[in-house]
Sequence to fold (1018 residues):
Amino acid sequence: MTDPGDRLLLDVRGLTVRFPTSDGVVQAVSDVSFSLSRGETLGVVGESGSGKSVSNLAIMGLLNRQRTAIAGEVLFRGRDLLTLPPDQLRHIRGKEIAMVFQDPFACLHPMYRVGAQIAEAVRAHDDVGKDRAWARAVELLDHVGIPNAKSRARDYPHQFSGGMRQRAMIAMALVHNPSILICDEPTTALDVTVQAQILELIEDVKREFDIGVILVTHDLGVVAETASSVMVMYAGRVMEYGPAREIFAQPQHPYTWGLLDSMPSVERRLAALVPIDGSPPSLLAPPAGCPFHPRCRYRFEPCPTERPDLVAPVPEAHPDACHLPWDDKLREGAKRSVDRVGEAA
Amino acid sequence: MTFYIARRLLWTIVVVACVLAITFAVFYLMPAGDPALRFAGKNPTDQEIAQIHHRLGLDKPWYVQFGKFSWRFFTGDKYGWPGLGYTYASGTSVKSLIVARAPRTLLLIAGAATLWLVTGVAIGVISAVKRRSAVDRLAMGFALFGISTPVFWLGLMALYIFWRQLGWTGGSGYISPSDSITGFFSHMILPWVVLALLYAAFYARMTRNNLLETLGEDYIRTARAKGLSERRVIFKHGLRASLTPIVTMFGLDIALLVGGAVITESVFNLQGLGYLAINDALQQDLPVVLGVVLLASVAVALANLVVDILYAFIDPRVRYG
Amino acid sequence: MNANGNLVELDHLTKRFQVKQGVFARGKAEVHAVEDVSLTVRRGETLGIVGESGCGKSTTARLMLRLLDATAGKVRFDGRDITTLSQRQLRPLRREMQMIFQDPYSSLNPRKTVGQIVGAPFVIHGQKKGKVRVQELLETVGLSPEHYNRYPHEFSGGQRQRIGVARALALNPKLIVCDEPVSALDVSIQAQILNLLRTLQKDFDLTYVFISHDLSVIRQIADRIAVMYLGRVVELGDSESIYEHPKHPYTAALLSAVPRASTGGRERIVLSGDVPSPVAPPPACVFHPRCPRFHKGHCDVEAPELRELAPRQAAACHYPLERWPMTDEEIRQAEGAERADRPHLEGTVHEA
Fold:
């Protein structure tokens, strides 16, 4: 979100993804735009059905092009990934943009040794011999903090603990020094102490290799700790997008307020949690107007019919997609400002 | 691991013994009449029947007969080891009968198995990869045909078309490869194809289903995310994980055919083990039946063992717990 | 009837499982799922059991409800020793203790209607309350009585969890054990279910045992908590006291590891390695290989007892924290000592 030039890695404009199904068209992602630069950690926050994972799968080209309608532009270093032919895309995937997934148990092939799977990643884009590839695999496992990397590389995934498997996945992603690392809920399936280790690892890696990180999660706490910029998604659209500090000090969208209100805190016992009423909408027939309006406590006249654009309400604020007047946003946002999190609403 | 194998082999012996006992019991309790009558010729006198009873050992109670059989089995009789005795009908050694017939059945199985494994899996893979395309529907239609068509009809039709009408292949009957290689192949090609067709259909369907399920797993997505070629993803990652049920079935299917390829053997007049067993069972020629049953159950038990071991090698989770 | 107000008492409860290691292996190994756990649950309170995977919290809950048989120790419910009762003798007691499960997608029978699921307890215990009562229950948990004839797959995760709650409430139990009831739900739905549970507790005079790995959730709902690690209780006491002043280093590490939405700085104790396997727990204090306050010669030799270190707060540690947050000096000391004298400081799972 800062300067252009060679620091800008990814520029996504108007990304839209639709799946035709027998029940209708699922509007998984609608008109999503963001950018990513070196040294930046973009936290993408949303609940299930928000489209956060699908967006990244679209960027990586992991969606079945025949069964998905993808529109928009995904500019990686100037080239539009969405228009590249599949084999060119394959050369970028795993080499310049790498992805780490949520459940490391299911993400590694159960019948091959861990080292072999990493070595395979090496040889996917580099014409090196098996020994060299294996050596690189061991080197990376060691780098991500796996003790006795040399002998552990010969183990099978089920012999690794959850945290170690995730480290191995990260090692596998780093094989070709990618410029972008996309982490889809990397810590959700892990214990909290291991979570802390993995987040620290990702941060170290980012600094060491000066790369850009997209961190997808539903956990606002994780985002608050690690992200430099934040994008809040709901029903496939962006609700709010800006620098992390601003988003937490001055949240501008009722959905973000709702998330902050309903989150229990480890720092204080709240008098009551204020949940968001209702449930996330069906993506087959998202609500007209603002997708959040059926559950929004602040909705008023324009909300059910006019969809709000993602714009900054005043020049010094960050963009949000909400019709509310700026004064209201200021006032309500101040109540949830993170410095004061934990005080009863 | 050796301990494991030793334990399994011991169990194999127990299982085979049980199978034999049950077969014996079934025969002894069968109400179809006195076996002696069949071998006694027309209008036998009571005395002649008693003589045959005595000769065949049928005048002793069943446990004595079984005991004698087991004893002779382990220590061998005048025909060598294992002692399988001699047929009621002609007095020929059961062992020599089996030894003469076994190669036909085994060769039939070998050829058909190779055919069905290769084609079945190949068709299954293509179907899975090109899911819902015309190729897929065609393949699954073929599978349905293969599974539904009765083997005897298929065999007879094949003989009629390819031998009678077109003269492309040899007819029924078996020619040993030591006599004539071309004769061997020309007579075996049809039985191989016919037997393979049914199994290929099953394997195609199973491969397709397993592969489709595997391709939905997370580690396939990881493999693609690494930038691997689609071919590698499907074969090295997808197929490998789908293999285990196929291996299991393959071992058992082969073993079951040892005594079970009866229809194919009949239609093509191959005089194999299955045919032998059924034929002589109808004549109540107990020793022969016991001999074939023995062979078949050993085959199945061994196949089970081999498949279990292979399973552990394919899937390291089973090996290391 | 129990005079001292304890609904459940666990006395030196231990549970070990036998496992085989691999198809070819000869030997068996023992998983020390729960070791020497003693705690009480007071009537009307919510006891939170906190810990990471493999710490034994779910096993403890199941032992409490006699869904598992203990290897050693005693379980008392409402003053009565139920450790060795047969399943038949336990039946009438089952009305009084119920469970809500973690996964709303697999804990409801997909072939039964909601009415059948919630009505099952009545049928099992031979009561004929019928449709009306079931519909009342559905309303109590925030669903509509018309949902009676629908199937689970027609509902969202949060609604399914409500169905599970309705089923647990059916026979007016005294105790409900909630095993990670909100872990599989979105944040905004989590809050709905937590609020529901709180309301129900007041309305129906319930006692909860609430299991979770999520410390923020536990803080919202628990009055007292037990922190478990590798099958043992390492800290036990009043919830607020423990959150404000943890005494056991593991509790401190857990608390500091939780990512939080405050951009103020705070120091974090990052434990190295992973949780050791419960098949071969470390000797003496089970936490010593990873403990920042480890003292060689003491912690690896003598197992610490759970003893009261502050009013209503007990911990099993020879060197409990004196102050929280830890001072910079203490942290530096801890990190220095980390690798020096612990040769088996490992992140391995199968080093048995």
Notes: Chain B has a mean pLDDT of 81. The domain at 101-271 of chain B is CATH 1.10.3720.10 (MetI-like fold). Residues 120 and 148 of chain B are 16 Å apart (CA to CA). Chain B touches chain C through nine residues (CB under 8 Å).
